[in-house]
Amino acid sequence: MRFLTFLAVSLFLSPGFAQNLSPAADQQLTREIYKELIEINTSFSTGATTPAAEAMAARLRVAGFPASDIQVVGAAPHKMNLVVRYRGTGAKRPLLLLAHLDVVEAKRSDWTFDPFVLHEQDGFFYGRGTSDDKAQAAIWIANLIRYRREGFRPSRDLIVALTADEEGGGPYNGVVWLLENHRKLLDAEFALNEGGGGEMHDSRRLLNLLQVAEKTYADFRIEARNPGGHSAMPVKENAIYRLAAALERISRYEFPIRLNEVTRAYFRATASLYTGALAEDLQAAARGDQQAIARVAAASPVWNAVLHTTCVATMLDGGHALNALPQTAGANINCRVHPDDSLQFVFDTLRKVIADDKVDVRPSGEPPTSAPASPLRDDILSAAKRVTSQMWPGVPVVPCMGTGATDGRFLRAAGIPTYGMTGLFLERDDKRAHGQNERVGVAQFYESETYLYRLVRELAQ
364 and which of 210, 219, 244, 406 could share a cystine (Cβ 3.0–4.6 Å)? Predict the structure, then answer.
């Protein structure tokens, strides 16, 4: 089966490309680590990150890493993080390689396959965390072991941090806890993280994205209340109906378009990959043409998301008994806030859109953390372009703004510039992170391993 895996990978690649990948033994090590991580349930409420952190620490000790360079620490016994340091010459400041061990919840009944078993079928790896973010976690560990075996002596220390609760946040968030309690473990000149990645359409590799900025994550609670009563004597005033009307208004509203330097460059670069009306629309969208922007937004959820703030209902609750009028009905509105919009603006806009003083709107959870974009450094961009050109000739490297939120915002806020770079190509309109049957292409997984191996070597020379 192992040899069939590598044969299958070669069939997905262009002639001669298989020779451009890491050796089969290194691919196999990465796959074994990937499988081990996928099959440890690290979800927020039903799992724990500690077993995964300890499993990776054990692999590093076997590979010869000194115990003093391996730290398993965290905010709670079940929410531990792994931080390991690969020693360089110290001529340059360290490079931090970040990935998170935790994943969002996944129910077996919702999936075709067991979400906590790595399943390979029809050229894809299936499992919770295959793309978000255990592919990168496995690759960082496998490549660190490979660097040691090869005797690589970088000019800077390499720090790999595999952290807890990027998805769950709160008091167990690994990056926040490490910055507050063990800043020296993470201190680096800059960091590489999830985000960015490769964009494909119909299996054609289009762009290798370098994420330098991201939206801000924010939740809002909207809630309707009234006295309730007996369901045998209904009245017009009903908390569920009032909430439903508010949700309907939110569903129809679109926040204003916000183009900035990063997104304009992204659309201009994307336009060069197409011909005809779509290419013209992408170019016009980059110039701010509103009609073209509307067509571009309708053509792809990704394109829509980078154009403006988005707010969407994600959870719903209401009522307290089958035979009673509801006293309370509420919903969570999850917003991904464009860097050019303030949180106050989003809050005020939601209240205006709902337009009902009997529906309460309030921020939910911890106050969001936002941070400025990372500077577009020539050395990072040049290294990304060189490795990309070696692996995917003709594919451009394009700076982008992430549509979601990552722990990179905490690093940026702490003064550590962070760049989303994975080299993991996903179909533009088939990104399944957080959803059912999460998957990545087998070929694309091994390409990502090779890309990150080479990129880190370039940046650490």
Answer: 219
- pLDDT tens-digit readout, 239-298: 999 999 999 999 999 999 999 888 998 899 889 888 999 999 999 999 999 999 999 999
Structural class in CATH, domain 2-195+406-460: alpha beta
Question: 455 near 423, Cβ under 8 Å?
Answer: yes
Helix axes 261-271, 276-287, angle to 10 degrees: 160
CA distances from 25 to 120, 121, 422, 446 (A): 19, 21, 21, 12
**CA atoms of 236 and 110, how far apart (whole Å):** 37
Q: What is the pLDDT of residues 302-323, one digit of tens each?
A: 899 999 999 999 999 999 999 9
Q: What is the pLDDT of residue 273?
A: 85
- What pLDDT is recorded for position 365? 84
Nearest Cα to Cα of residue 134 among 30, 64, 3: 30
Q: Binning pLDDT at 50, 70 and 90, where does residue 14 land?
A: very low
pLDDT at 13 over 70: no
End-to-end, the C-alpha distance of the chain in Å comes to 37
Domain 216-364, CATH number (from 3.30.565.10, 3.30.70.360, 2.60.120.10, 3.50.30.40)? 3.30.70.360
Q: What is the pLDDT of residue 238?
A: 96
In Å, the largest CA–CA distance within the chain is: 79
Pairing of strands 119-121, 124-126: antiparallel
Pairing of strands 158-163, 397-402: unpaired
Residue 8 pLDDT level (bands cut at 50, 70, 90):
very low
For 416, phi then psi, to 5°, come to: -110, 100
Domain boundaries, the chain: 2-195+406-460, 216-364
Question: Which residues, 6+ apart, have CB-to-CB distance to 45 below 8 Å?
Answer: 105
